[in-house]
């Protein structure tokens, strides 16, 4: 996530650096009026199915699964997700490949010409560029990941034919509200009257059903469609008159069962416009790939990457990791405003050692502050600080034996900053 630091940046990196100076990526202004106005000026009507995915955790996984199943079915979707890990172009995939930098630059230019004196945030500008890419490419469908919340997020400028709400947890409370009730209302705002809203959250707040009802959307519980007694190696989904037996998705973690059910049901709801047979659904689940989601990078010692950055995601990570059988080191950092104590408590039993480092960027938090909050949580493992994520990973690997494990997590940036070290070390 450091493309703009190159002394000879590419045209895309230079464009993004200009955009960052004008509208820092950390600046968030929820609201749709400005985005709608610029999209109207761009005169690029999209007449293909739109699937919008909201939720505290699991959004990226569901987008990737839907994209993979559409590709297996012979379709050419645009998948839009954020943030990226290594390259900005990861955010915009057309027909399964990252958009060319020249295509992205052209789309950013189109937004710039259309906006005139309208002020757009970084995310709003790049979201409209993704929509323009979809229009120019003539895609068969759009699969959109909400950036923050839902109701007032830039992707909600397009009306979702199917909305997916993966989970409801506490995150971004300063924007979405302090409780799950508040947050559920915001996420439900991506749904539309008379159209399906697929819900993966096992314990939805009352406000979710109330908001979907007030919108006039048609709620569908993914868990009710998912057979609880299915063999552990398969999914059994009954929905829309179909009974499917499918493989588990290639993404690791027990929580991916529910994410897969959300993705499959979303496509079943669009069967009249995007028919896909069971063979393609199965192939898409087997072939799905998504970096940084409980991703095993190497063995001896085991090194895993995960973008978990809130207590709910940390609890899911903890369930997958389990108690360590040998030394287990967390390479951890978090952005300002994150519930570090909640993350620490969720993962306390999983680690014997925490190595904490600061991140780059204007939302960074000093390592000492993060470490102090972990100690106050408290966590039972040792806690130490180093100057950077790569240094933390170096320390962890140097002190780990072949039967130990190292887990890098805390944000997309934590994973991004560790990646070059993993690529360069044996």
From TrEMBL:
Domain Mur ligase central per the UniProt entry, residue ranges: 53-188
A cellular component term, taken from the record's GO annotations: cytoplasm
Keyword annotations: ATP-binding, Folate biosynthesis, Ligase, Magnesium, Metal-binding, Nucleotide-binding
Transmembrane segments: none
Reactions performed catalytically: (6R)-5,10-methylenetetrahydrofolyl-(gamma-L-Glu)(n) + L-glutamate + ATP = (6R)-5,10-methylenetetrahydrofolyl-(gamma-L-Glu)(n+1) + ADP + phosphate + H(+); 7,8-dihydropteroate + L-glutamate + ATP = 7,8-dihydrofolate + ADP + phosphate + H(+); 10-formyltetrahydrofolyl-(gamma-L-Glu)(n) + L-glutamate + ATP = 10-formyltetrahydrofolyl-(gamma-L-Glu)(n+1) + ADP + phosphate + H(+); (6S)-5,6,7,8-tetrahydrofolyl-(gamma-L-Glu)(n) + L-glutamate + ATP = (6S)-5,6,7,8-tetrahydrofolyl-(gamma-L-Glu)(n+1) + ADP + phosphate + H(+)
Biological pathway: Cofactor biosynthesis; tetrahydrofolate biosynthesis; 7,8-dihydrofolate from 2-amino-4-hydroxy-6-hydroxymethyl-7,8-dihydropteridine diphosphate and 4-aminobenzoate: step 2/2; Cofactor biosynthesis; tetrahydrofolylpolyglutamate biosynthesis
Region forming the signal peptide: none
Superkingdom of this protein's organism: Bacteria
SUPFAM superfamilies (alphabetical): MurD-like peptide ligases, catalytic domain, MurD-like peptide ligases, peptide-binding domain
EC assignment: 6.3.2.12, 6.3.2.17
GO MF annotation, one: metal ion binding
Xref: PROSITE patterns: FOLYLPOLYGLU_SYNT_1
Mur ligase C-terminal domain sequence ranges: 292-412
GO biological process terms, semicolon-separated: folic acid biosynthetic process; tetrahydrofolate biosynthetic process
Purpose: Functions in two distinct reactions of the de novo folate biosynthetic pathway. Catalyzes the addition of a glutamate residue to dihydropteroate (7,8-dihydropteroate or H2Pte) to form dihydrofolate (7,8-dihydrofolate monoglutamate or H2Pte-Glu). Also catalyzes successive additions of L-glutamate to tetrahydrofolate or 10-formyltetrahydrofolate or 5,10-methylenetetrahydrofolate, leading to folylpolyglutamate derivatives.
NCBIfam families for the chain: folC, PRK10846.1
Record-stated family: Belongs to the folylpolyglutamate synthase family.
Protein's name in the database: Dihydrofolate synthase/folylpolyglutamate synthase
Organism of derivation: Wenzhouxiangella sediminis
Organism taxonomic ancestry: Bacteria, Pseudomonadati, Pseudomonadota, Gammaproteobacteria, Chromatiales
């Amino acid at each position: 996530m450091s493309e703009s630091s190159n002394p000879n940046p590419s045209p895309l990196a230079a464009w993004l650096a200009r955009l960052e100076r004008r509208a820092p990526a950390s600046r968030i202004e929820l609201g749709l009026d400005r985005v709608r106005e610029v999209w109207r000026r761009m005169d690029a009507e999209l007449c293909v199915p739109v699937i919008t995915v909201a939720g505290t955790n699991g959004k990226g996984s569901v987008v990737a699964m839907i994209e993979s199943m559409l590709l297996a079915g012979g379709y050419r979707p645009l998948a839009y997700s954020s943030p990226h890990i290594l390259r900005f172009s990861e955010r915009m995939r057309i027909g399964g490949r990252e958009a060319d930098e020249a295509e992205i630059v052209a789309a950013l230019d189109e937004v710039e010409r259309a906006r005139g004196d309208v002020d757009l945030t970084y995310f709003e500008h790049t979201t409209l560029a993704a929509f323009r890419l979809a229009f120019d490419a003539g895609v068969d469908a759009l699969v959109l990941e909400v950036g923050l919340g839902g109701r007032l997020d830039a992707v909600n400028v397009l009306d979702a034919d199917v909305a997916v709400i993966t989970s409801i947890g506490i995150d971004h409370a300063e924007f979405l509200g302090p409780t799950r009730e508040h947050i559920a209302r915001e996420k439900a705002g991506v749904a539309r009257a008379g159209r399906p809203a697929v819900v993966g959250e096992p314990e939805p707040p009352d406000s979710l059903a109330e908001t979907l009802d007030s919108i006039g959307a048609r709620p569908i519980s993914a868990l009710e469609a998912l057979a609880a007694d299915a063999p552990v190696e398969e999914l059994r989904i009954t929905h829309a008159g179909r009974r499917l037996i499918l493989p588990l998705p290639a993404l690791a973690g027990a929580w991916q069962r529910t994410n897969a059910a959300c993705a499959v049901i979303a496509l079943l709801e669009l069967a009249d416009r995007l028919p896909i047979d069971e063979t393609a659904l199965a192939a898409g689940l087997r072939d799905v790939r998504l970096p940084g989601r409980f991703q095993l990078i190497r063995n001896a010692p085991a090194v895993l990457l995960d973008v978990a950055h809130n207590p709910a995601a940390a609890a899911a990570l903890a369930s997958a990791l389990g108690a360590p059988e040998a030394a287990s080191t967390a390479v951890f950092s978090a952005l300002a405003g994150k519930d570090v104590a909640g993350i620490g408590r969720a993962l306390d039993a999983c680690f014997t050692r925490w190595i904490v480092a600061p991140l780059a960027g204007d939302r960074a938090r000093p390592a000492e502050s993060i470490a102090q909050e972990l100690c106050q949580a408290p966590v039972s493992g040792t806690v130490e600080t180093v100057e950077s994520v790569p240094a933390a990973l170096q320390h962890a690997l140097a002190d780990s034996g072949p039967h130990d494990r190292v887990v890098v997590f805390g944000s997309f940036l934590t994973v991004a900053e560790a990646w070059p070290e993993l690529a360069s070390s044996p």
